[in-house]
Specification:
Strand order of the largest sheet: 1-2-3-4-5-7-6
CATH architecture: 3-Layer(aba) Sandwich
Strand content: 25-35%
CATH topology: Aminopeptidase
Bound molecules: coenzyme A
CATH superfamily: Gcn5-related N-acetyltransferase (GNAT)
Radius of gyration: 15 Å
Structural class: alpha+beta
Order of helices and strands: EHHEEEHEHEHE
CATH class: Alpha Beta
Number of domains: 1
Length: 170
Amino acid sequence: MLVYQKLNKSNYNEILKIKHQLFPESNSDDDYIKYFNNEVKSNYYLVLKDNKPCATIGWYDFDNKNTDAFVGWFGVKPEFQGQGIGKEILQYIIDEVKALNYDYLRVYTDKVVNPISILLYNKMFDVKEAYLNSDKIGWTKNFVVFTKYLNNKREKWHNRSLNEDDNYNF
Ligand SMILES: CC(C)(COP(=O)(O)OP(=O)(O)OC[C@H]1O[C@@H](n2cnc3c(N)ncnc32)[C@H](O)[C@@H]1OP(=O)(O)O)[C@@H](O)C(=O)NCCC(=O)NCCS
C-alpha cells in the first residue's frame, strides 16, 4: 500500500533527493519555498511504499485561477519503476484536482529526456500537443503538453507560456 505524505519541512530534503536524481537538468528547487509560503496554489507529496520513500508527485496552479492544474515533480525512484506506482499516484492527483473543481489537469514533459513518461501520459490524458511557444523550452521543440479534461470544458493549451524558462539551463 502507498502512503501519501504532504510536503513539509521534515520530508522536504527527501523529496529534493528524488527530484535531483530524476531531474538533474532542472533548477527549480526554490519553487518549494513558494509552495511553503503559499505563493503558488499547489500540493505536493512524498510517496512511501513499505515505509520507504519511492516517489514524488504533486500539482501546482501557477496563475492561481483555479482552472488549470499542472502535474509537478512527478517521478518514481528507479528501483521502484515498472510496478504500477506511477500510474497509481498520477490517478490520485487526477482525483484530487477534479475534486477541487479544476477544469483541466495538464502536464508537460520533454519527450527526448523522459520518453517513458510519454507512454504513460498517452494512456492517462485526453489530448497531446507539441509545445512550440517562442520561449526557451518551446524552442527546443522537445516539449509536449498533455491535457486531461475534468468536466465538459474542452480547451487545449494552445502554446500559452508554461512559465518555466527560469527553471532550465540550456
Ligand atoms: C514516468 C514514470 C513516472 C513512470 O512510473 P512507473 O511507476 O515506472 O510507471 P508504471 O509502472 O505505473 O507504468 C505505467 C505505464 O508506463 C509505461 N511504462 C512504464 N515503464 C515502462 C518501460 N520501462 N517501458 C515501456 N513502457 C513503460 C507503460 O505504458 C505502463 O503502463 P502499463 O502498466 O499499462 O503497461 C517513471 O518512469 C519515472 O519516474 N521516470 C523518470 C522521470 C519522469 O519521466 N517523470 C515524468 C516526467 S514529467
